[in-house]
Amino acid sequence: MGSPVRGARRRGRRRAPAPAGPARRGPRRAGPRRRRAAARRSRTRQRRQHQHGQRDRAEGTGVDGGDTQQQRPGQGEPGDQGTGARAEAEQRASRRGCGQLGIGPGDRVDGVAGRAVGRSSGPPSSRSTLAVVRTGCAWRALPVDFPPWQTVYWYFNQWEQQKVTEKILPVVRGQLRIAEGRDPEPSAGIIDSQSVKGADTVGQDSRGYDAGKKTGGRKRFIVTDTLGLLLTTMVCSASVQDRDGAKPILLNLYLRTRVRFVYADAGFAGRLLDWAATILQTTIEIIRKPPEQRGFTVLPRRWVVERTLAWLTAHRRLARDYERHPTTSEAMIRWAAINTITRRIARGYPATRQQKHTTPSTH
To answer: Per the domain annotation, does 50 fall within a domain?
Structure first.
């Protein structure tokens, strides 16, 4: 063992500089980190070029696949140049939004991500949004197989501003109803509400407490047809009563569909029935529980909308309300409904629950 003084002197001694050798020839070889970073930048650049090319093709052809010029309302009239320009801009935005998903009003949908037969499957952002809704992951936690989360969230906002999901939902719903032997447009609906817990991202302006369900958060109102397919939805504070929260969603139903007969539970009874019959010319029939009922019993008509709520909450993003704005929560519900309907169209029949596996007894 050496002396500590000598060891200290040895550690403090400076190393002599290396002798100067011949100059290195050729470019310096990049290390593994630089090569991986360059590969990531190249993939990102190629992906953005692919997305921009699809957007340009969607803007050029539109959802109908043609470049024909149609006479628009107000076009050619002296006093309606502004109205015609605004209508033309709205139609271009609508064609661009639906064209990015590859879905048109007359297309037949096939596949989980809303892919139209005979068209491209659209940008990966639609599949990324469905991955967020189905798995419940955060935007920033998207796997590396998908585009950057900023790109996906940008497409999500753009599509909602152009009301793309509100235009896709009636298309796929009509296709499924035709496949089931029904009329594309329903004539009767079923309304119900669901109170869900709100995460810490839900603001106080849209958060409430449902004393009946003992749940703090938000309340979802949905209207479905008799097959359980979503017609319209609305999200508000959980403290709103059912008969009060049903008015805006029934008004939206009146404006968007031809449904004039709605089934509901006892929570919607009262003055709402007279208001709907007077203002909306809509009849609401209350399905009440039998007086002798004890425990759970499947009630006619009402079980359909309860099953739809179960379909929606199977998407983990909807197991709890994580959205800052109620409109974003409504968009997530529409994405979940589109996912459910398109999967059923592609499958060709309703899904069946997997039976529980039982190990055979050895005795």
So the answer is: no
